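Ticket #4471: structure output looks truncated?

Reporter: J.K.
Steps to reproduce: submitted the chain below (360 residues) through the standard prediction queue, then opened the result file.
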Amino acid sequence: MNRSATHSESGDRPIHLYGLRPDELRAWLEEKGEPGYRAAQLFDWMYKKRVTGVEAMTNLPKSLRALLRERTRLTTMEELTRQVSKKDGTTKFLFRLFDGSTVETVLMRHSYGNSVCVSTQVGCHMGCAFCASTLGGLVRNLTAGEMMEQVLACQRLLDAEGGRVSSVVLMGSGEPLENYEATVRFMDLVSAEEGLRIGQRHITVSTSGLVPAIRRLAKERRQITLAVSLHAPNDEVRGRLMPINRAYPIAKLLEACREYWEETGRRVTFEYALIGGVNDRLDQARELAGRLRGLPCHVNLIPVNYVPERRFERTPREQVQAFRKELERRGISCTVRREMGADIAAACGQLRAGHRMAEA
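Returned output as attached by the reporter:
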């Protein structure tokens, strides 16, 4: 069995069941002398009934439940903190993982459905100047199973309300395409017919601009949405905000994005965090429109989140709208992201950073 499906690369750590595809679980059961059809029963308990322990799986033989207790783990994280926005119901979780690391997950409630913002790494080392996730650097990659547990924790909360997770955005802490194998495995798991059946068109992967990984993803021709953190119209400004621009400047990045469009037929979303006095002038909007002209894309303008350690100023609301209108006048599809969970510090990394400071 593919060892990347296990909870850890060390052979003595229990297998994380949420990291297994149906065929892998079937193969593991058969290897242990169990009939393959038990895999379907297990998946039903895991993803349909959404139990949190094997003891609840009452149609499995006691001997199999004993084997599962000994050799596998179902849940591997515990909830430390939950914050709920009084403004819009956005719910932010802080989870402790098996090794004591912490990670954030956000459930956002929209008029068109419920979306979960998933973290893919503990921390981040991309060093973007406006982001709280990178404070403290990268600790480790998350496994696909740990990503899946984040979604299921939100789904269990929605179960009590008669709701369901309708979309997933990999925009939490970390760079998803740096943790490529686990990210792709997670996408396969979350869209599996035996699982939560969240279609690929309802999955968004955000990247700071890892050009080789974008090209690799393009070749796979998945029907996901690719969201690229651009945040500047030129290399001078982007280089100050995002260290990755030194390795992959804007021209190379846009070339990879065009390749993604050509391979998948999916337009690219460009994330653009507006920072007062840095990247929000109208001449910069015109420069941005010129760079993106001819590339099927959408620009998502984001008034920058306040991070105490960063001291960036937010662009005034009227300037945000003027920037949007300037892009639209020049033929660029554009929206301003609705602010979610502002009263609970729902920006990536803020809850975890606060927890780390409290423990220091």
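Triage note (M.O.): checked the attachment and the full token line is present. The two ends are 41 Å apart (CA to CA).
Status: closed, working as intended.
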